Amino acid sequence: MAAVLSGVLFQRIREFFGRPVFSPRRYWEDRHQAFAGTLAAVGHARLSDEANAEQYTIKSERIAAMIRRCHDGESGDALLDAGCGVGMLTPLYMEMGFIVMGVDFSETAIAQARLRCPAAAFHSADLARLQLRRAFDVIVVADVLQHIIDDHRFRATLERLREHMKKDGCLIVLDSFSVPNEKSAPHCNRRTLDHFELELRSLGLRMTHHESFRLRHENAIKDLLAVRRIASESLTSESVVNSRTCR
Fold this sequence. Notes:
By secondary structure, this protein is an alpha/beta fold. It has helices at about 1-15, 25-35, 50-70, 90-95, 105-115, 150-165, 195-200; strands at about 80, 100-105, 120-125, 135-140, 165-175, 205-215, 220-230, 240-245. The chain is about 35% helix and about 25% strand. It is globular and about 50 Å long. The termini are far apart.
């Protein structure tokens, strides 16, 4: 909580002195309203709906395969769609037999998600302050972490996701990690995979699976990870299952 407050305080100080401050919440509310009804709201803003839909199909197939690889639970297990946006992936999780809760900090996105998938439960909440008072068998955070600009809020988000994982649960992460010195768009902060792994281990988590694949329309490499709690200090990063496929 202190880390989150320090990040908010820093932003308020910058606003006081008149420096322009990028507001992720304002950016996403404006974007969801401007592109309402189109996939540009949650996909790539410069791609057509057809291209974005094709990319969502690829991502859906990859995420579903990773969940099946890492979770052998039963129908009715609980899944948290963290940063669900307009609920593009929520129907997939329900078709897989999960009881789904979707969370996003955009009220506009949540309203659209409820229309898209009325059988799921949706809540508007900040992932860095998430307090759902329950734990999940699977948590999926897809194309979200790179959009958390502030490093304190990034760590706070990982802490809150960990606290909402069951002891034997898994966290599935789809994101774009950077190479050193890569420049990001104003609404992105692409950290390196090494940085991400260090943050995980400092929180008692470890990456168990990792694969990469290419999205041809935006010519981007995506990283798909499975994360679990560290069960033994003897486990090291050398035991991570890696695969790399470019499409």
